[in-house]
Amino acid sequence: MPAKHASRLDDLIFCPLDLPAVPSIDPESFVEWMKADPFKTGEYPKAHYERVVGKTYPWLMRSLQGDLTSLASAFPAVMAYCQLYPFSRIRNVIFLAQNGHQSVFTHTDSDGLVGMRFYLANKSTEGLHFYRGKEPYDYFNCYPKDQQGNPYSANLPDYFDMSQKTYARFPQGVRSFMLNSARAAHGIDSNTCRLGDRIAVLVQGELDQERYQALMDDSLKKYGEYAIWY
Questions:
Q1: Which member of 25, 28, 64, 147 has the greatest number of CB atoms within 10 A?
Q2: Class of domain 8-139+165-229
Q3: Continuous segment of H or E residues that includes residue 169
């Protein structure tokens, strides 16, 4: 389906965000909180990925859907930071702690054109990279279903130019950013850190278009040299 090109920002693949510094946490304590997930929210994505793709899932995952009280209680500064993002209502906050000595497979995320992110911890060599779509997609599903309803892994080289690998660059000390999971697929190089040294946070919800436009205007003005466009 052709891209709608509703906004110039639809073609923005990556940009650091003009937000305050990410709050400091004790990574070991945070990983223990992730492991204590009473609903085991990371087990289904892990099992689903390993069944469909046949490779090891590279993250410890915890997902909060709707009810964010456990985060607000345990790490109020992290909850407050999530609320800086331009959503009228936050639906989900997803935490991904990359396992040591693991690369993150090339993929797209469910939030499509507007992916709001920050690294709660990032002691690894960066390694975040993108492969532009062969055409401008508004949404791309890595795991479509066949006629029997069974999910399978899309052959990404059919849809993305895997010959052109573009690395993200971050200003010193900046760990908040947006990425676009429709115009480009992304992955992360193998790291050599321990579990907890690299924790990505995905903030998802109902986008406040006015706040989003203002944030991106400010971010592009400040960090435009780091932006990656389609």
A1: 64
A2: mainly beta
A3: none
